[in-house]
Amino acid sequence: QGKQKKARKYAVMKRMISLRDERIKEKDRAKVPVKKKEDPSAIKEREVPQHPSCLFFQYNTQLGPPYHILVDTNFINFSIKAKLDLVQSMMDCLYAKCIPCITDCVMGEIEKLGQKYRVALRIAKDPRFERLPCMHKGTYADDCLVQRVTQHKCYIVATVDKELKRRIRKIPGVPIMYISRHRYNIERMPDDYGAPRF
Prior knowledge:
Distance between the termini: 90 Å
Radius of gyration: 29 Å
Order of helices and strands: EEEHHEHHEHEHEE
Strand order of the largest sheet: 5-4-3-6-7-8
Number of helices: 6
CATH topology of the domain at 71-187: Rossmann fold
CATH superfamily of the domain at 71-187: 5'-nuclease
Structural class: alpha/beta
Largest sheet: 6 strands, mixed
Shape: elongated
């Protein structure tokens, strides 16, 4: 009987030597990290996020009439679809004077949408709207709105976007305005503000 032929293995990688191996010269060898022992008597420093002074538990003292409402791009579009007057519907919802605020990046998003959304652009350029300048690059409005309400808790955010709502719910003391059943509703607004709860 003849010798059995062994099938050659293809694509077998050559084993690489570890950089910590003793066979490698001392200067080329990787250094083993030395762990420092923690001193039990040392004062432990840890960074705790500073809570804003305007929050008293869930009650936000900075929120009060006239309400400043940050408007999102899709909120304007959904208001047009639902045939709602933006400022009047806000006042009907909160029973107080409302100042809709629009950031430069939201304005940029509406302008980018083109000719189809020219009605939304005309509404956004309404003189009753307060224009807020943006210092950041790009026109991604969601990040800008989240950052703005984290810094200044004096705004109500008007949006229909589920992802943005989810992000804002994590920030304490920031109410959300949304559209349902052809009218504006508010979420997370304590009774003490004089606004109805739905």
